[in-house]
Write a structure and sequence with these properties.
It contains 16 helices and 26 strands. By secondary structure, the protein is α/β, with parallel strands linked by helices. The chain folds into three domains: 213 residues, ANL, N-terminal domain (Rossmann fold, 3-Layer(aba) Sandwich); 109 residues, Luciferase, domain 3 (Roll), CATH 2.30.38.10; 104 residues, ANL, C-terminal domain (GMP Synthetase, Chain A, domain 3), CATH 3.30.300.
């Protein structure tokens, strides 16, 4: 099954259902389908074998996504926030290709050999010019999406997502046209992230209209949610924290909002507890997934959230910091360094297998011989099958042969009334191999000394888990999907430590 069929099914059954709501007006499923066929017809006449997207969130994104599939060309959304040299290098790697580029970003990508760059307005014009033409879809290219990794440890890799991977995920997790006619989803995650792609696919298939927020601020998010009567949304943890702060400061509510999913980074326990208090009628879902798995592979559902917050059992309450249980269509295991499956409660590396799992990059596959994908995430399962993620394997601190989870220490420190944000990481140490280090952001008007915070951690965890190095900062560095840039902190803090 190919991605365009998800749109075609909706357009055939509910042609007048609104697909996209935007400042320029609404687009129905039928109109989006006709436009996608028109732009695909034009695209098939052009040189190149890919369709690239460089721009903000907006109606042009789902049009490009479905057009590329109809034209039999891989869709390649690129991170426009990259420095110019990095962006141009990635774009050159996609050549020959047609690139749909926001007008104000055109100068950044001009003159790259093999790239035909046009604006979203020009692409939409081609769609309207060819929308009435007799359309015959191209021979299917099995590769639906190419997504470049962040490249924090080297040259970015291009992850391959095939039509079968993505459609398997959509069909197994979404009820076909199951949304109400008034339902709307607010999309504020970046278009070059797997969450942005899966949001477009799942909501079109489910019949829920898309409301795009070009750039995130909590004020703009709340305004759009109210204007569009948004019922569903997905955010990263840093977004949720800022949205809650503004709602609380204004004393406002979001009466239409029924479901809010979050993912992309570790959710601080105080933030989700605050969310459950401020938005008690909202169903919260923690969704854990990776690019290579076509999005979500485990969820902590609304009932899990409510059961955890209401329970007196510490093991049940602890599940609020888990990512829930694996999807029933997948297999998931925790394995140790020898590849042996770990018992409940024993940490190791998360492995996953299933039809939605790609685990493939241009030029190589990361899958084992029997189809398992090693995620490079450290985690463990409790006795009831709830998955706890401790971070990337290379983020785990190894002190004197003991593996220490940064997240466990971060959760303890976040319970301190003076701490606004925290990141725990390992720094080189001649005696122990690595030492535990803390980067701390204090709340405005609050104070806490290094000794006070040490005692706070020691009273709740073993002394070996107490940070030895402390760095008080105004803010922590984050990427745009809500993940703290630990490697940036490591470099900065290691350099400071060496100079002491």
């Amino acid at each position: 099954m190919e991605l365009p069929l998800l749109l075609e099914m909706g357009a055939d059954a509910f042609p007048d259902r609104i697909a996209i709501a935007g400042p320029a007006g609404s687009v129905t499923l039928d109109e989006l389908h006709r436009s996608a066929k028109g732009s695909a017809s034009w695209l098939m006449r052009q040189a190149g074998d890919k369709l690239v997207y460089i721009g903000l969130n907006g109606p042009a994104f789902p049009l490009c996504l479905f057009s590329s599939g109809l034209a039999g060309r891989p869709f390649v959304p690129l991170n426009y926030r990259l420095p110019d040299d990095d962006l141009r290098r990635l774009l050159a790697r996609t050549a020959p290709a047609v690139a749909v580029v926001d007008a104000d970003m055109m100068p950044r990508v001009a003159g790259i050999e093999g790239i035909m760059a046009i604006t979203p307005e020009q692409f939409s014009l081609h769609a309207s010019e060819h929308s009435d033409a007799q359309f015959s879809s191209a021979e299917v290219n099995d590769t639906a999406i190419l997504l470049f990794t962040s490249g924090t440890t080297g040259e970015p890799k291009a992850a391959i997502l095939r039509h079968s991977n993505l459609t398997s995920y959509v069909i197994s997790t979404v009820e076909y046209m199951g949304a109400g006619e008034r339902d709307a989803t607010l999309i504020s995650v970046p278009p070059y992230h797997i969450a942005g792609i899966s949001a477009a696919l799942t909501n079109i298939y489910g019949g829920r209209r898309l409301a795009y927020l070009p750039t995130f601020t909590p004020e703009a998010w709340i305004q759009l949610a109210k204007q569009q009567g948004v019922t569903h949304a997905m955010v990263v943890p840093t977004m949720l924290g800022r949205i809650l702060d503004v709602l609380q400061e204004r004393g406002e509510a979001l009466p239409a909002l029924r479901a809010l999913s979050y993912g992309g980074g570790r959710m601080p326990l105080p933030t989700i507890k605050k969310a459950l208090e401020i938005l008690p009628e909202v169903d919260f879902v923690n969704a854990y997934g990776l690019t290579e798995t076509s999005s979500t592979i485990a969820i902590l559902d609304p009932d899990d959230h409510r059961a955890a917050i209401a329970s007196d059992d510490p093991m049940v309450r602890r599940r609020l910091s888990s990512v829930g249980r694996p999807l029933p269509t997948l297999e998931l295991e925790i394995r140790d360094e020898a590849g042996i499956v770990c018992a409940a409660g024993v940490p190791g590396e998360v492995f996953v297998r299933g039809e939605q799992v790609s685990g493939e990059y241009l030029g190589r596959s990361a899958l084992t011989a029997d189809g398992w994908f090693p995620t490079n995430d450290a985690g463990w399962l409790d006795g009831a099958g709830y998955l706890f993620i401790e971070g990337r394997l290379d983020d785990v601190i190894v002190r004197g042969g003991e593996n220490i989870s940064p997240g466990e220490i971060e959760d303890v420190l976040r319970e301190h009334e003076a701490i606004d944000d925290v990141a725990i990481l390992g720094l080189p140490d001649n005696q122990w191999g690595e030492r535990v280090a803390a980067a701390i952001v204090l709340k405005p008007g609050k104070a806490a000394s290094q000794d006070e915070l040490k005692q706070w951690v020691q009273a709740r965890l073993r002394s070996t888990k107490t940070p030895e190095t402390w760095d008080f900062r105004d803010a922590l560095p984050y990427n745009d999907t809500g993940k703290v840039l630990r490697r940036t902190l490591k470099v900065e803090m290691a350099k400071a430590l060496a100079n002491d």
